[in-house]
């Protein structure tokens, strides 16, 4: 398993954006262990989010080592090799949640008790790969890349969400899967606030200020033809490098980000209901009505007129 990476296992890859995110929670636990605790090299087949409450871990994910302390969070994706141990004299207490970003259906579902909790981790050096489960699609966020390790600024704000998930998972009241999905969405939302600005820019990115300034420029010049090469040169960056940095920091290309801003503005104007579709098209930087309609339908799944009608407001002229 040395050096194993996600796509070495999964045969299919899927992307999910925030509008289609619907977490399926498989397992929740709160665990305490002493310095005999260890996790041998393994991969998992879903996502695991861990919130450390007390103690210290030495964790290795994808051949990168981390010293994980109380208040830290780990985000372990499917098919990525990882292992850990508790240093001598230390102990550990944590919450852990296993989940998928979307429900993949009965064909790809599995029991966490059978796959994870029945393994005798203390007496093996690595956990054999379950070949059947490697057929599960690898589902990833299309709009953000989550790090493996997060040092939370205010971990106490999310502890209650993990406790809520544990209580719901343990008691399993009627409709508990809906409650778990809601709680998981709150946890993911908390993580995004920790990691990104209100514009979705990675707070730790080395060029955060330049990317944020570019986004502000997009908002201020929404109706104009924006030349990203000129913006790159004004920042003393080559156009290709600038585009790479922007994608790293936001998860979107410059064109994708500008399009999302324009379409959100267009939808807001449609909801107001006092402009024609042509006027709205021009107000968000599209002088070609046909191109605007084509772009809107591509991203929103229905035409501008269809969107207006779906709002049950007076049809536009």
What's this, in brief?
The chain contains 10 helices and 10 strands. It has 317 residues and is of the alpha+beta class.
Question: What does this molecule look like?
Answer:
This protein has helices spanning 112-117, 156-171, 176-195, 208-220, 228-234, 239-250, 254-272, 277-283, 289-300, 304-310, and strands spanning 13-16, 24-33, 38-42, 47-61, 64-69, 72-76, 82-85, 92-100, 138-141, 149-151. 38% of the residues lie in helices and 21% in strands. Strands 2, 3, 4, 5, 6, 7, 8 and 10 form an 8-stranded antiparallel β-sheet that branches. The protein has a two-stranded parallel sheet with strand order 1-9. It folds into 2 domains: 6-195, Sandwich (Jelly Rolls); 208-310, Homeodomain-like (Arc Repressor Mutant, subunit A, Orthogonal Bundle). The chain contains 10 helices and 10 strands. It is an alpha+beta fold and 317 residues long. Helix 2 (156-171) packs antiparallel against helix 3 and helix 5 (228-234) crosses helix 6. It is globular. GO terms for molecular function: DNA-binding transcription factor activity; sequence-specific DNA binding.
């Amino acid at each position: 398993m040395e050096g194993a990476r996600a796509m070495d296992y999964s045969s299919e890859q899927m992307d999910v954006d925030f509008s289609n995110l619907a977490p399926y929670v498989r397992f929740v636990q709160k665990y305490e262990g002493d310095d005999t605790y260890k996790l041998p090299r393994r991969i998992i087949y879903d996502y695991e989010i861990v919130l450390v409450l007390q103690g210290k871990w030495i964790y290795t994910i994808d051949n990168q080592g981390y010293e994980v302390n109380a208040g830290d969070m780990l985000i372990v994706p499917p098919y990525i090799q990882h292992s850990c141990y508790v240093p001598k004299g230390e102990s550990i207490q944590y919450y852990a949640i296993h989940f998928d970003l979307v429900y993949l259906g009965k064909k790809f579902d599995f029991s966490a008790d059978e796959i994870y909790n029945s393994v005798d981790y203390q007496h093996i050096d690595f956990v054999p790969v379950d070949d059947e489960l490697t057929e599960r699609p690898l589902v990833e966020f299309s709009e953000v890349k989550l790090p493996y390790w997060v040092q939370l600024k205010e971990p106490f704000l999310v502890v209650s969400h993990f406790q809520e998930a544990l209580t719901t998972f343990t008691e399993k009241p009627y409709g508990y899967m809906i409650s778990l999905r809601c709680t998981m969405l709150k946890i993911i939302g908390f993580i995004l606030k920790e990691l990104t600005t209100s514009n979705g820019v990675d707070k730790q990115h080395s060029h955060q200020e330049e990317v944020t300034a570019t986004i502000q420029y997009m908002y201020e010049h929404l109706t104009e033809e924006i030349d990203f090469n000129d913006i790159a040169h004004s920042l003393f960056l080559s156009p290709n490098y600038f585009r790479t940095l922007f994608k790293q920091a936001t998860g979107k290309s410059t064109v994708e980000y500008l399009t999302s801003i324009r379409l959100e503005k267009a939808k807001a104007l449609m909801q107001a209901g006092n402009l024609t579709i042509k006027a709205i098209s021009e107000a968000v930087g599209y002088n070609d009505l046909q191109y605007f309609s084509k772009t809107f339908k591509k991203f929103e799944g229905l035409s501008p007129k269809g969107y207006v009608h779906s709002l049950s407001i007076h049809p536009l002229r």
